[in-house]
């Protein structure tokens, strides 16, 4: 599809302008913070500015390159026309693929949260809007489409570091084995199986995920509990996770299934709780 003279092109240009302006704004904030002696705050603003720049580059690429078929679906939706599930999937895949390629180029990490079924109560959706608590676990068949998606990126050497999360515990072994298909040097554990998420963000869910990972892969490379929340009240769940992890490993030690060696256990636990993520995300670079 040609984007010239289309509403889609106008929207992409607006998005590009907004991201570019945000990048400049955060760079100014970073410089002011540095001048005030707040180097750590300055660094946060600089990282945010780089993120805004990367987003702007994605929109710029779409402006000049377009998205065949996916752009057609977007154009229809922007004009209030109904689109098919296939057209919606095509657009979503194109956008995620474009982001993934940019993440790989920048050395960023892609996180895929799979298995949510959103806004199920239409009466409450009409009354309160989207994402107001009427969500649940989906039971999709994810193995084949996920493998095809990741393979398409890998064939272009565009598969970034990726963390896969599932909301449905039935897919723990699907993701646990999917990791091995796309591991690649030089990043140890390039493809990760993410910790229990959302409805699984509790003891049974976390233990189930870690047992599957330990049975199928290398638990010691696990990046542990992450958060996508900006709320400080969510941070205690990291301590909750650490206690569950230590209790689980301790039970294996008591049964003779893990080495009763303090030095080895210290390295494994400290790695999962901190150092693996530190290395994986390049915080030391």
List keywords for this structure.
285 residues, single chain, mainly alpha, 7% strand, two-stranded antiparallel sheet
What does this 3D model show about the protein?
The chain has 285 residues and is mainly α. The protein has helices at residues 7-35, 39-65, 70-78, 85-106, 122-128, 143-155, 172-181, 203-216, 236-254, 262-280; strands at 109-114, 116-117, 136-137, 161-166, 191-193. Strands 1-4-5 form a three-stranded parallel β-sheet. 22% of the residues are buried.
Brief overview:
This protein has 10 helices and 5 strands; from the N terminus they run ααααββαβαβαβααα. It is mainly alpha-helical.
Describe the largest sheet.
Answer: 3 strands, parallel
Helix content class: 55-70%
- N-to-C series of helices and strands: HHHHEEHEHEHEHHH
The strands making up the biggest β-sheet line up spatially as: 1-4-5
Strand content: 5-15%
- Overall mean pLDDT stands at 88
The gross shape turns out to be: globular
Cα-atom Rg, whole angstroms?
21 Å
Distance between the termini: 41 Å
By DSSP (H or I, 4+ residues per run), the number of helices equals 10
What does the secondary structure layout of this molecule look like, with pairings?
Elements: H1 7-35, H2 39-65, H3 70-78, H4 85-106, E1 109-114, E2 116-117, H5 122-128, E3 136-137, H6 143-155, E4 161-166, H7 172-181, E5 191-193, H8 203-216, H9 236-254, H10 262-280
Parallel strand pairs: 1-4, 4-5
Antiparallel strand pairs: 2-3
Helix pairs in contact: 1-2, 3-4, 7-8, 8-9
